[in-house]
Amino acid sequence: MHRYFALLAAALFLLAACSPAGERTPTGGQAGPPARQEEAGEEPVYPPGVPVLMYHKIGDEPNNDAVISREKFLEQMAYLYQNRYHPISLEELYAYLTRGEKLPPRPVVITFDDGYRDTYEVALPVLKQYGFKSVLFIPGMQVGKRLSREELLEMKAAGMEIAAHGFYHRSLGVLSPREQEEEIRKSKEILDQTLGQDTRFFCYPNGSYNQETLRILRETGFVMAFTMEPGWAKPGDNLLALKRIWMGNRIDLTRLQQRLAREDYPRT
Ligand SMILES: [Zn+2]
User: Fold this and answer.
1) How many angstroms separate the alpha carbon of residue 114 from the centre of ligand 1?
2) CA of 115 to the centre of ligand 1 (A)
3) Which CB contacts under 8 angstroms, 24+ apart, belong to 68-73?
4) Distance 206 CA to ligand 1 centre (A)
5) 149-198 per-position pLDDT tens digit
6) Is residue 44 left, alpha or beta, with left meaning phi > 0 and alpha meaning psi from -120 to 50?
7) Residues at Cβ < 5 Å from ligand 1 ion
8) Distance from the alpha carbon of residue 203 to the mean position of ligand 1, in angstroms
9) Which of 8, 31, 51, 121 has its CA 20 to 30 A from that of 201?
10) Residue 169 CA, ligand 1 centroid: distance in Å
11) Of 3.40.640.10, 1.10.15.40, 3.20.20.370, 3.40.30.10, which CATH number belongs to 49-261?
12) What's the CA-to-centroid distance between 250 and ligand 1, angstroms?
């Protein structure tokens, strides 16, 4: 009997001694945030989905949050590169959302709205340097104006998809169905003809649309469209109302990290 109690006491002692050590392991030692990031890089993103970053103008307007400074933009691209993010194309995003096709670890989409000169002059060189794919949403009326056909073809050849952003950049949600039809049809025609492509991706000017817009987009041959509502693009989402993440002067590296880490990032 004594031996039995001695064994039991020894076992209980071992349990008590092991338990705290076991609890220390995950949080102790050198396992801080950087190590967790490395581990996450090899795992599928959880929750499933892809952050779609939305840039507009790059330039020196510190009080305008629709603009991001050149320094901040370069810093963000360097961050994506150093932390092994993989910017993917809209074709890849579409294949993932509709057919569940596999994406590289840490996928992200980099989009530029409106076709500013700086997308070509500032963004393109650094995107090329890192081998990053990206997307330009350009209003039809800016084709051959802000950016020439040759420049657009050069951007396309460098891995920047050129997609539609209305024709006159009008807010579609307040237009009549006939006006919307014209905006949407013309925005596709000019890109198809100028760039020799079948334009299937759209972005709502000013984020504005209604149920009619969705119907017209489908009938015109668009299969995916982006809003300005915050969040990630996820399987099961309405493909014609995908969310994006606002990028501007206010988004420092901490805020960028939050936005890349999870869909319900702090909206501050
Ligand atoms: Zn726009």
Assistant:
1) 5
2) 9
3) 68/247, 68/248, 68/249, 68/251, 69/249, 70/118, 70/122, 72/249, 72/251, 72/252, 73/122, 73/123, 73/126
4) 6
5) 999 999 999 999 999 999 999 999 999 999 999 999 999 999 999 999 99
6) beta
7) 113-114, 205
8) 8
9) 121
10) 6
11) 3.20.20.370
12) 19
Q: Which residues contact 110 (CB under 8 A, 6 or more apart)?
A: 53, 55, 87, 127, 132, 133, 134, 135
| Partners of 95 in beta bridges | none
23, β-bridge pairs: none
pLDDT at residue 32 is higher than 70: no
pLDDT tens-digit readout, 85-126: 999 999 999 999 999 999 999 999 999 999 999 999 999 999
Distance 205 CA to ligand 1 centre (A): 5
| Centre of ligand 1 from the C-alpha of residue 137, in Å | 8
Task: Report the DSSP pairing between strands 107-113 and 134-138.
Answer: parallel
* pTM, entire model: 0.83
Going from the Cα of 172 to the center of ligand 1, the distance in angstroms, rounded, reads 12
Delimit the domains of the chain by residue range: 49-261
State phi, psi for 87 to the nearest 5 degrees. -65, 125
In three-state secondary structure terms, 110 is strand
- The DSSP-derived string for 163-228 is EE--SS---GGGS-HHHHHHHHHHHHHHHHHHHTS---EEE-GGG---HHHHHHHHHHT--EEE-S
- How much distance in Å is there from the Cα of 148 to the middle of ligand 1? 18
